[in-house]
Amino acid sequence: MSKLLEELLKRGFKAKIRNKNIFVNLSLFSFPVSITHNAELNTYELKMEYWRYIVVMIGLSINVVIGFVYENVALSFFILAIVLCQPIGLYIAKSRAKALAEYLSSVNGEART
Q1: Where are the domains of the chain?
Q2: H-state helical runs in 11-112
Q3: Pairing with 89, which of 24, 95, 100, 105 sits 20 to 30 Å away (CA)?
Q4: Mean per-residue pLDDT of the chain
């Protein structure tokens, strides 16, 4: 795992090791993705946890509705802007994860041979 972390850092990814997983922060607006090692297949797996985006969007959407009910319009519009930016952050993370996934597939190909 430490060799992979060093290679990711050389390639410009912002990565850290925590609990035997590598977490890579792809952008300012996205949650980190994790890289785990599958010992049975001797491969690295990229995991994007979409549930985080869903939980944040649902929670903030509820805050928007509550804000409009209690006539806190300015704060509600601000939170609504954040809710609408979440899919953009998800798109950015997904597009940047492609390069990371391609690199991991090349590493996995080298590990199998």
Answers
A1: 2-112
A2: 50-69, 73-112
A3: 105
A4: 88
